[in-house]
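User: Is it possible to get a 3D structure for a protein together with its bound compound? The compound here is zinc ion. I've pasted both below.
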Amino acid sequence: MQSPLLIAQVVLDVPLPGPFDYLLTAPCEHRQDLRGRRVLVPWGKQTKIGLIWDTQTQTEQPVNKLKAILAVLDDIPALDTTWRALMSSVAAYYHKPLGEVALQALPVLLRRAEPYRRATGHPPASRSIKLLEKRVQKWLAQPSSPSPSLAKTLNSAQQAALAVVQGALAAGRFQCYLLHGITGSGKTEVYLQALAECLARGQQALLLVPEINLTPQLEATLQARFPQHPIALLHSGRSDGERAVAWLAACRGETALMVGTRLAVLTPCPNLGLIIVDEEHDPSYKQQEGVRYSARDVAILRAQQLGIPIVLGSATPALESWQHSQTGRYHALPLPERAIVAAQLPQIQLIDIRAGKLQHGLSQAALAALAENLTRQQTSLVFMNRRGFAPVLQCQQCGWVSQCRHCSAYSVFHKADGRLHCHHCGWQAIVPKHCPQCGNLDIIPLGYGTQRIEDFLRQHFPAARIIRIDADSTKGKVGAQPLLAQVHAGEADILIGTQMVAKGHDFKNLSLVVALNVDSALFAQDFRAPERLFAQLMQVAGRAGRDGLPSQMLIQTQYTDHPLFNALQQHDYPSFATQQLAERESAQLPPFAYQALFRAEAPNLSDAIAFLQALQQQLAQQALLRVYEPVPLNLVRVAGKERAQLLIEANQRPPLHLALKEALVYLASQKKSRVKWSLDIDPQEI
Ligand SMILES: Nc1ncnc2c1ncn2[C@@H]1O[C@H](COP(=O)(O)OP(=O)(O)OP(=O)(O)O)[C@@H](O)[C@H]1O
Ligand SMILES: [Zn+2]
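Assistant: Yes, that's possible. Here is the predicted structure of the complex:
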């Protein structure tokens, strides 16, 4: 008698929905653990890596058309049910093919199919995996840190917060905690002791951070605190090999402590007991291409599916999270004081830049404060979120301005290499010797970027040790670490930096912050702009006075009576949040509504708009939705493509997602066009 068919449903990273049916032939068919296995399958003329999602004995395809799986790969453990459930939920929520979500969650080295040699008839002895294997063992055998550090004695607020999380760990149940601690309140110490508890229970713990730059400092802290635990570092700054090693160790449960940026949230961990999301409000948790997931939201979903506690920490929580902590959906854990008793929050002063003349972008008050801080031998931070020398060059004669050839944006003057750079598409050009329009020789830089501020401060304070940290000064393999290490070692008198230095760092001896060029964010059209600005300024302010020095922050602005600044001067996040939430509620914006955004791009704006208009008509038939007119993006042209967006809103999630599902069916039925589109659920930039 013929044995029954065994069909594997395989997910693949291909632009079709899937899963795809493949035949399982001897000797695979008797295996029990096929689900979650990596497999090698034929796909057209190619061979691809896929994952078996399920097996069954029937198929809707004609059996003689089915292809057989080439090999079941045994080199890594089968990905377990909980991980597969997470992938399925992420795919469903973000309306993406399961294969794209699941395969892209694997390290690059594990999704690359090696040539399959039929001659040997054997699963391809995966050479690279064997090599990785050796590296994992070597890494696990590394000697532990020579200088272990002890847990600090917690203050009462820290103690109370920790006790609550410990309770949830002991009970092994899901709860989302919002650790709302002002800057320098010792959130990290609470994380460390919660991690210790989780590890002592023999479980794995996952710590997410927003920036790669924060990981080395954190890694050192963790290594000193947990010398017996190798730490799996998972972020995009690591080589493919390093990432695969850390991933494999985590996935096999050989390491208990995983630290990384947003992509780390998708790492399989068979024994996860706790998730911590540091700086949970940070926009970089949202992936901005491909599967546009929010790592924070996925982390919460994961904790819920596993029935484990999750701690979100921030001095300025996302308004969504804050709202949940007010309604009781999240459990609020406040840390209202700085952990070092003598450490006071900086005094915040507004400097009205309409009042006096600026010298190279800096007010007299700011220059005087910097000079004074130099004589005190204390460090100052000049914060400015604009890199380059000057945002644009202008001809004094005819008004010509330097523009990117491919974008509707200025090209930024970089003095160091004498070139114009487009910060949107990367286009570069040599600075013209004379105006390309009228031939005039007098073309001048307009406005200020970090390089120009650095230039001026070097002239103005020739004896000062000045370090600039931004995307330009930290390009290349070594990144920001050497410069940050210099600052930590006390080798900077003045640190000039973008948001790269604003968050998380525990700098010593820093007692003055000067914030420049903040006004544009006050009137940006994105409704989240004030929230972002407040968080950013509060974060930067928080770098000052952390070790007990009296400190101040100066903000240069034209709008000294703006309510945002008033709340900031009081260090009063809650009242800022309350006021913002009231506005959001009356305007029916998140967190009181749910949004999705279709973006379209085409060589011509009119094509992108027409595409979205058709979609708008489809969606307009749905109940309970607010479907807006398609509009061009603020920066309409990038890299030669013109872009538009269509915003959809609903007061509840289900009708929104239902409508999106139908819209996607409609799109799939349309002919291919020149328009490229994407769907962003819970968009963070509008
Ligand atoms: N219980 C404690 N006793 C003494 N010092 C502490 C205690 N807890 C934390 N600290 C110290 O307080 C300082 C600030 O702590 P930490 O960096 O954890 O703050 P944070 O809340 O994470 O700040 P931010 O949000 O600004 O990054 C650190 O130098 C830390 O070592
Ligand atoms: Zn450009």
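Residues 152-155, 158, 181, 183-189, 315, 339-340, 504, 506, 542, 546 surround adenosine-5'-triphosphate (ligand 1) (CB under 6 Å). The radius of gyration is 27 Å.
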